[in-house]
Design a protein that fits this description.
With 268 residues, this protein is of the alpha/beta class. It has a domain at 5-94: Translation factors (Elongation Factor Tu (Ef-tu), domain 3, Beta Barrel), CATH 2.40.30. 16% of the residues lie in helices and 33% in strands. The protein has helices at 74-80, 114-126, 146-152, 191-203, 246-249, and strands at residues 5-6, 16-19, 22-27, 30-34, 38-39, 46-51, 55-63, 66-70, 87-94, 104-110, 130-137, 154-159, 166-167, 184-188, 210-213, 243-245, 257-259, 265-267. It has a seven-stranded antiparallel sheet with strand order 2-9-6-7-8-4-3. Helix 2 runs parallel beside helix 3. The relative contact order is 0.13.
Length: 268
Protein backbone atom coordinates (compact mmCIF):
# COMPACT_ATOMS: atom_id res chain seq x y z
CA UNK A 1 0.00 0.00 0.00
CA UNK A 2 1.28 3.42 -0.93
CA UNK A 3 2.40 5.45 2.11
CA UNK A 4 -0.19 8.04 3.07
CA UNK A 5 -3.04 6.20 1.30
CA UNK A 6 -5.67 3.93 2.78
CA UNK A 7 -8.35 1.78 1.21
CA UNK A 8 -10.76 -0.33 3.24
CA UNK A 9 -11.78 -3.76 1.96
CA UNK A 10 -15.36 -4.55 2.94
CA UNK A 11 -15.72 -6.45 6.20
CA UNK A 12 -11.94 -7.02 6.35
CA UNK A 13 -11.12 -3.36 6.79
CA UNK A 14 -9.47 -2.42 10.03
CA UNK A 15 -9.51 1.01 11.68
CA UNK A 16 -6.35 3.03 11.31
CA UNK A 17 -5.08 6.12 13.07
CA UNK A 18 -5.58 9.41 11.22
CA UNK A 19 -3.92 12.52 12.56
CA UNK A 20 -5.65 15.83 11.91
CA UNK A 21 -3.37 18.08 9.85
CA UNK A 22 -5.67 21.04 9.28
CA UNK A 23 -9.10 22.30 10.37
CA UNK A 24 -11.08 24.77 8.26
CA UNK A 25 -14.09 26.70 9.56
CA UNK A 26 -16.49 26.46 6.60
CA UNK A 27 -19.65 27.95 8.15
CA UNK A 28 -20.68 28.89 11.73
CA UNK A 29 -21.79 25.27 12.29
CA UNK A 30 -19.50 23.33 9.95
CA UNK A 31 -15.80 22.43 9.91
CA UNK A 32 -13.61 20.45 7.54
CA UNK A 33 -11.03 18.10 9.11
CA UNK A 34 -8.08 17.12 6.92
CA UNK A 35 -6.82 13.70 7.98
CA UNK A 36 -3.25 13.58 6.74
CA UNK A 37 -3.79 10.70 4.32
CA UNK A 38 -5.46 10.19 0.96
CA UNK A 39 -8.46 7.89 0.95
CA UNK A 40 -9.06 5.92 -2.24
CA UNK A 41 -12.72 6.81 -2.28
CA UNK A 42 -15.23 8.07 -4.82
CA UNK A 43 -17.73 10.93 -4.34
CA UNK A 44 -20.58 9.77 -2.13
CA UNK A 45 -18.62 7.19 -0.15
CA UNK A 46 -18.14 7.63 3.59
CA UNK A 47 -15.82 6.60 6.41
CA UNK A 48 -16.58 5.47 9.94
CA UNK A 49 -14.88 7.89 12.31
CA UNK A 50 -14.14 6.71 15.82
CA UNK A 51 -13.91 9.59 18.28
CA UNK A 52 -12.19 7.94 21.21
CA UNK A 53 -14.36 7.52 24.28
CA UNK A 54 -17.45 8.91 22.53
CA UNK A 55 -18.75 7.12 19.45
CA UNK A 56 -18.09 5.64 16.01
CA UNK A 57 -20.00 7.66 13.39
CA UNK A 58 -20.30 7.78 9.57
CA UNK A 59 -18.93 10.84 7.76
CA UNK A 60 -18.98 11.58 4.03
CA UNK A 61 -15.77 12.44 2.23
CA UNK A 62 -15.72 16.07 1.09
CA UNK A 63 -12.14 15.86 -0.28
CA UNK A 64 -9.91 12.85 -0.94
CA UNK A 65 -8.30 13.47 2.46
CA UNK A 66 -11.01 15.19 4.49
CA UNK A 67 -14.46 15.05 6.07
CA UNK A 68 -16.79 18.00 6.54
CA UNK A 69 -18.81 17.90 9.74
CA UNK A 70 -21.78 19.82 11.12
CA UNK A 71 -22.06 20.12 14.89
CA UNK A 72 -25.33 18.37 15.73
CA UNK A 73 -24.78 15.94 18.63
CA UNK A 74 -22.42 14.50 21.23
CA UNK A 75 -20.02 12.87 18.76
CA UNK A 76 -19.70 15.87 16.46
CA UNK A 77 -19.40 18.20 19.46
CA UNK A 78 -16.49 16.07 20.69
CA UNK A 79 -14.94 16.15 17.22
CA UNK A 80 -15.20 19.95 17.19
CA UNK A 81 -13.07 20.06 20.36
CA UNK A 82 -10.15 18.31 18.64
CA UNK A 83 -7.24 20.35 17.34
CA UNK A 84 -4.49 19.99 14.77
CA UNK A 85 -2.26 17.11 15.82
CA UNK A 86 -5.07 15.20 17.54
CA UNK A 87 -6.16 11.95 15.98
CA UNK A 88 -9.21 9.80 15.25
CA UNK A 89 -9.54 6.23 14.04
CA UNK A 90 -11.17 5.62 10.66
CA UNK A 91 -12.51 2.74 8.58
CA UNK A 92 -13.33 3.04 4.93
CA UNK A 93 -14.12 4.25 2.37
CA UNK A 94 -17.44 2.42 2.61
CA UNK A 95 -20.41 2.13 0.28
CA UNK A 96 -21.05 2.60 -3.41
CA UNK A 97 -20.82 6.35 -4.03
CA UNK A 98 -22.33 8.24 -6.96
CA UNK A 99 -22.14 6.96 -10.54
CA UNK A 100 -21.14 9.80 -12.85
CA UNK A 101 -22.54 9.66 -16.38
CA UNK A 102 -23.90 11.82 -19.17
CA UNK A 103 -22.93 15.17 -20.63
CA UNK A 104 -25.07 17.43 -18.44
CA UNK A 105 -25.92 16.88 -14.77
CA UNK A 106 -27.95 18.61 -12.06
CA UNK A 107 -26.96 18.63 -8.38
CA UNK A 108 -29.39 19.56 -5.59
CA UNK A 109 -27.68 20.01 -2.23
CA UNK A 110 -29.05 21.09 1.12
CA UNK A 111 -27.06 22.01 4.22
CA UNK A 112 -24.12 19.70 4.96
CA UNK A 113 -25.43 17.49 2.16
CA UNK A 114 -23.31 19.72 -0.05
CA UNK A 115 -20.19 17.94 1.26
CA UNK A 116 -20.31 14.66 -0.75
CA UNK A 117 -21.63 16.40 -3.86
CA UNK A 118 -18.78 18.94 -4.12
CA UNK A 119 -16.15 16.36 -5.19
CA UNK A 120 -18.68 14.96 -7.68
CA UNK A 121 -19.08 18.42 -9.22
CA UNK A 122 -15.30 18.76 -9.49
CA UNK A 123 -14.91 15.31 -11.04
CA UNK A 124 -17.62 16.14 -13.57
CA UNK A 125 -15.90 19.40 -14.50
CA UNK A 126 -12.64 17.51 -15.03
CA UNK A 127 -14.46 15.20 -17.45
CA UNK A 128 -15.98 18.14 -19.37
CA UNK A 129 -19.48 17.38 -18.10
CA UNK A 130 -21.78 20.39 -17.79
CA UNK A 131 -22.72 20.96 -14.14
CA UNK A 132 -25.59 22.95 -12.66
CA UNK A 133 -25.99 23.10 -8.89
CA UNK A 134 -28.92 24.16 -6.73
CA UNK A 135 -27.48 24.85 -3.28
CA UNK A 136 -29.63 25.51 -0.22
CA UNK A 137 -29.19 26.34 3.46
CA UNK A 138 -31.06 28.03 6.27
CA UNK A 139 -29.03 31.24 5.99
CA UNK A 140 -26.45 32.70 3.61
CA UNK A 141 -23.54 32.14 5.98
CA UNK A 142 -24.44 28.44 6.18
CA UNK A 143 -24.14 27.85 2.41
CA UNK A 144 -21.37 25.29 2.03
CA UNK A 145 -18.64 25.19 -0.65
CA UNK A 146 -20.06 28.03 -2.75
CA UNK A 147 -16.70 28.66 -4.44
CA UNK A 148 -16.22 24.98 -5.30
CA UNK A 149 -19.63 24.70 -6.91
CA UNK A 150 -19.32 27.99 -8.74
CA UNK A 151 -15.97 26.98 -10.21
CA UNK A 152 -17.48 23.67 -11.39
CA UNK A 153 -20.35 25.23 -13.33
CA UNK A 154 -23.61 27.15 -12.98
CA UNK A 155 -24.78 27.78 -9.42
CA UNK A 156 -28.10 28.92 -7.97
CA UNK A 157 -28.56 29.38 -4.23
CA UNK A 158 -31.57 29.45 -1.94
CA UNK A 159 -31.90 30.26 1.76
CA UNK A 160 -34.82 29.93 4.14
CA UNK A 161 -34.46 33.53 5.32
CA UNK A 162 -33.64 35.06 1.93
CA UNK A 163 -30.24 36.33 3.07
CA UNK A 164 -28.62 34.83 -0.04
CA UNK A 165 -30.18 33.93 -3.39
CA UNK A 166 -33.77 32.78 -3.63
CA UNK A 167 -35.90 33.02 -0.48
CA UNK A 168 -37.41 29.63 0.20
CA UNK A 169 -36.65 25.91 -0.07
CA UNK A 170 -34.00 25.00 -2.61
CA UNK A 171 -36.46 22.58 -4.24
CA UNK A 172 -38.57 25.53 -5.39
CA UNK A 173 -35.75 26.37 -7.81
CA UNK A 174 -36.74 23.21 -9.70
CA UNK A 175 -39.90 24.98 -10.88
CA UNK A 176 -37.87 27.01 -13.37
CA UNK A 177 -36.01 24.03 -14.85
CA UNK A 178 -36.74 21.42 -17.49
CA UNK A 179 -35.31 18.29 -15.90
CA UNK A 180 -35.23 16.57 -19.27
CA UNK A 181 -32.21 18.73 -20.12
CA UNK A 182 -30.11 16.71 -17.67
CA UNK A 183 -28.72 13.21 -18.12
CA UNK A 184 -28.48 12.58 -14.39
CA UNK A 185 -29.78 14.28 -11.23
CA UNK A 186 -27.91 13.89 -7.93
CA UNK A 187 -29.12 14.99 -4.50
CA UNK A 188 -27.97 14.99 -0.89
CA UNK A 189 -29.41 16.83 2.08
CA UNK A 190 -32.42 16.65 4.41
CA UNK A 191 -34.60 13.74 3.39
CA UNK A 192 -37.75 15.82 3.07
CA UNK A 193 -35.87 17.94 0.54
CA UNK A 194 -34.70 14.87 -1.38
CA UNK A 195 -38.15 13.27 -1.38
CA UNK A 196 -39.49 16.44 -3.00
CA UNK A 197 -36.75 16.16 -5.65
CA UNK A 198 -37.84 12.60 -6.35
CA UNK A 199 -41.48 13.66 -6.54
CA UNK A 200 -40.64 16.32 -9.15
CA UNK A 201 -38.41 13.88 -11.06
CA UNK A 202 -41.21 11.28 -11.14
CA UNK A 203 -43.52 13.88 -12.60
CA UNK A 204 -41.01 14.45 -15.40
CA UNK A 205 -40.49 10.68 -15.91
CA UNK A 206 -36.92 11.12 -14.66
CA UNK A 207 -36.90 8.89 -11.55
CA UNK A 208 -34.62 6.39 -13.29
CA UNK A 209 -32.05 9.15 -13.80
CA UNK A 210 -31.82 10.27 -10.17
CA UNK A 211 -29.37 9.31 -7.42
CA UNK A 212 -29.84 10.12 -3.73
CA UNK A 213 -27.43 9.81 -0.81
CA UNK A 214 -29.29 8.56 2.27
CA UNK A 215 -28.50 9.13 5.91
CA UNK A 216 -29.51 6.42 8.39
CA UNK A 217 -28.41 5.33 11.84
CA UNK A 218 -25.31 3.22 11.14
CA UNK A 219 -23.69 1.13 13.86
CA UNK A 220 -21.33 -1.39 12.26
CA UNK A 221 -20.72 0.06 8.79
CA UNK A 222 -20.16 -3.50 7.52
CA UNK A 223 -23.65 -4.64 6.59
CA UNK A 224 -23.90 -7.00 9.55
CA UNK A 225 -26.12 -5.42 12.20
CA UNK A 226 -29.04 -4.40 9.96
CA UNK A 227 -29.66 -1.13 11.79
CA UNK A 228 -29.62 0.90 8.59
CA UNK A 229 -31.90 -1.35 6.50
CA UNK A 230 -34.54 0.33 4.34
CA UNK A 231 -38.16 -0.86 4.39
CA UNK A 232 -39.45 -2.95 2.66
CA UNK A 233 -36.46 -4.07 0.56
CA UNK A 234 -34.04 -4.65 3.44
CA UNK A 235 -31.27 -2.92 1.52
CA UNK A 236 -28.50 -1.77 3.84
CA UNK A 237 -27.53 1.90 3.56
CA UNK A 238 -23.96 1.26 4.70
CA UNK A 239 -22.98 -1.29 2.03
CA UNK A 240 -25.79 -1.31 -0.56
CA UNK A 241 -25.79 2.51 -0.44
CA UNK A 242 -25.54 5.14 0.77
CA UNK A 243 -26.42 6.18 -2.80
CA UNK A 244 -29.64 4.76 -4.27
CA UNK A 245 -31.47 5.37 -7.51
CA UNK A 246 -34.84 7.07 -7.42
CA UNK A 247 -36.46 3.95 -8.88
CA UNK A 248 -35.26 1.93 -5.87
CA UNK A 249 -36.66 4.48 -3.40
CA UNK A 250 -40.07 5.12 -4.98
CA UNK A 251 -41.95 2.50 -2.92
CA UNK A 252 -39.76 2.62 0.19
CA UNK A 253 -39.80 4.46 3.51
CA UNK A 254 -37.88 7.30 1.83
CA UNK A 255 -39.22 10.70 2.87
CA UNK A 256 -41.63 9.22 5.42
CA UNK A 257 -39.63 7.77 8.33
CA UNK A 258 -36.27 6.46 9.50
CA UNK A 259 -35.26 4.46 12.57
CA UNK A 260 -33.44 5.54 15.73
CA UNK A 261 -30.72 3.66 17.61
CA UNK A 262 -33.30 1.27 19.10
CA UNK A 263 -34.91 0.54 15.73
CA UNK A 264 -38.04 2.57 16.48
CA UNK A 265 -39.62 4.42 13.57
CA UNK A 266 -39.14 8.20 13.63
CA UNK A 267 -41.26 10.26 11.27
CA UNK A 268 -39.33 12.74 9.16
Amino acid sequence: MHPGRYQGRGTEMMPINARITRIVDETPSTKTFFLGLTLDGKPGQFVMVWIRGVDDIPMSLSYPDAITVQKVGDATSALFKLRKGDSVRIRGPIGNGFTLSGKSILLIAGGVGAAPLAPLAEEAKGKKIKVKTLLGAKTGDELLFVKRYRSAGDLQTATDDGSEGYKGPVTELLDGLDLREYDQIYSCGPEKMMSRVLEVAKGANMASKTQFSLQRYIKCGMGICGTCCIDPSGLRVCVDGPVFSGETLVDSEFGRYARDASGRKVRL
